[in-house]
């Protein structure tokens, strides 16, 4: 027996916005991936290191699922979320909406999905489930992972049950677009200013523009931070460019969101923000290349160059967000 909900299986660049796109298109709301990312105030920065990590992590977006909650709140969407420690109840939480003809978003650990070729634990991965049969689940993932894909049901169960950093307890969710929901273009300014305020006023020095400055200081020591710089530095660079970030640690997505906003808003502050993020996107791609080169050559100079570039990027993004924070004025 099988249950399949027909969906538009467009795979995007980033997992959470790919899933949001699938769920919202099914409800009749078709927004571009940069627009989903920006309306969800998805851009951020995190420098994360601890004795439990093999190597420092650079994050370019808000925590998993914060984007979904913010988007739903900003657009007045109906968001139903389930979490449970029971695998049986967790499966019931997805079969019920599927039986009613609605796809379901899932947060899980991508390590266990059999179509993933890169076996790295990531508990913040998000996919759209739109059907299943006796053996396999039918999912939509990013274009990089194949778009419309399937995975064995036992692998899906293991991915949903995984515990560790960024995981959730079998989290599943559905979205609805109620009558009278605000038009997305009317919510652009609140989305942009909320993102800017969070970026400019982080609670700790590892977040926002302060986090980029922290990364600039600490990146010089990365070769000494690992016994395998030839492996870990290129891997960090790949994560920045290719691990569902859309390139440039999500700055490409935010640049494109701001460009789309200029079609609805005529504002010098917006044009400044867009120009600065176009600059920043190029700089982040250059930074990733320098990190990779440091690992491949064994030389310290590329990390010193990356440190100087990160210091400049902290300034560029601070200027961009300062301009954008004034949009409401």
TrEMBL record:
DUF4872 domain sequence ranges: 155-324
Domain Butirosin biosynthesis protein H N-terminal: 14-142
InterPro entries: BtrH_N, DUF4872
Protein name per UniProt: Butirosin biosynthesis protein H, N-terminal
Taxonomic placement: Bacteria, Bacillati, Actinomycetota, Actinomycetes, Kitasatosporales
């Amino acid at each position: 027996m099988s249950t399949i909900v027909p969906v538009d299986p467009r795979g995007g660049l980033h997992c959470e916005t790919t899933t949001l796109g699938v769920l919202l298109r099914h409800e009749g709301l078709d927004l571009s991936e940069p627009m989903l990312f920006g309306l969800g105030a998805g851009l951020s920065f995190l420098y994360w290191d601890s004795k439990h990590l093999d190597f420092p992590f650079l994050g370019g977006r808000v925590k998993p699922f914060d984007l979904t909650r913010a988007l739903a709140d900003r657009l007045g969407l109906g968001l139903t979320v389930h979490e449970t420690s029971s695998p049986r109840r967790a499966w019931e939480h997805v079969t019920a909406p599927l039986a009613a003809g609605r796809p379901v978003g899932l947060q899980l650990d991508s390590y266990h999905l059999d179509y993933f070729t890169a076996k790295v634990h990531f508990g913040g991965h998000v996919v759209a489930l739109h059907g299943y049969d006796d053996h396999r689940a039918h999912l939509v993932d990013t274009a990089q992972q194949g778009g419309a894909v399937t995975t064995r049901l036992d692998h899906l169960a293991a991915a949903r049950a995984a515990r560790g950093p960024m995981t959730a307890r079998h989290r599943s969710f559905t979205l609805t677009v109620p009558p009278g929901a605000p038009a997305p273009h009317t919510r652009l300014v609140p989305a942009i200013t909320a993102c800017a305020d969070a970026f400019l006023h982080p609670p700790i020095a590892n977040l926002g523009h302060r986090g980029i400055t922290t990364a600039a200081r600490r990146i010089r020591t990365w070769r000494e931070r690992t016994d395998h710089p030839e492996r870990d530095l290129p891997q960090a660079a790949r994560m920045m460019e290719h691990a569902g970030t859309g390139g440039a640690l999500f700055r490409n997505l935010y640049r494109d969101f701001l460009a789309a906003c200029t079609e609805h808003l005529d504002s010098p502050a917006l044009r400044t923000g867009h120009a600065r993020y176009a600059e920043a996107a190029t700089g982040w791609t250059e930074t990733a290349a320098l990190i990779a080169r440091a690992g491949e050559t064994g030389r310290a100079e590329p990390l010193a160059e990356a440190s100087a570039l990160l210091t400049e990027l902290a300034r560029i993004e601070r200027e961009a967000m300062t301009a954008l924070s004034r949009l409401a004025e």
